[in-house]
# Entry
Amino acid sequence: MGSILVTGSVDGIGRRTAAQLLARGHRVVLHARNEERAAVAKTALPAAEAIVVGDLASIEETTALARSLSGYGRLDAVVHNAGIARLDAPARELTRDGLESTFQVNVLAPYLLTALSPRPGRLVFVSSAMAADGVPDLTDLRYDARPWNGVEAYSTSKLLDLALAFALARRWPDVLSNAVDPGWVRTRMGGDAAPTSPDDAARAQVRLAVGTEPDALVSGDYVSDRDWRPERGRIDPVGDELLVRCAELTGVGLPG
# Structure
């Protein structure tokens, strides 16, 4: 049985992912952005080994979160499930670090956690088929020059998650690093009309985190039931540039 961190595991797909891992007998570390939400997670999943707290919209708190994870030793898997979507927001939202919030939570925080934590056996990044509409302009991540568009910002963050997963697969051949599209899911983000249940969406994340089937023992893959597939010739150069940009923004380079 393995030790797995699931970020954003208070509700939605993250909670279902953690619950399925616990049901299989794995040791699960939950994550919440504040103490109030941590209390909710503890009540919902009392069998969890621990819960770590940190706001992924803060470089300082994400750094502290990564340091707290070192106390659990080398994790067998990390599921980067946490994310935000401001699809209909009329204006950009800058964090206290001066970064656009969708990028910081969905992309920069997973990078920073990965760079600062002991290297796990597996990495699972939650992406989306909306990545097809992403615009990976790493020169204007704050939307200083471009008109703000919440759908574009979210789609771009999911494209960059793909690029990050693939880049880590190339840089760390001893780690299985993959991205997964959970589909359109009935959650607070997806709405009641979505066709996919949170439990079904969670199964794909669980399979990549702990599965022993051949299709789970891969690296640099994108798992989705939908038709769109990323163009590696487009994605891989973005991933290399993204690692450099994230290191510049955080002051933390990727080990190895």
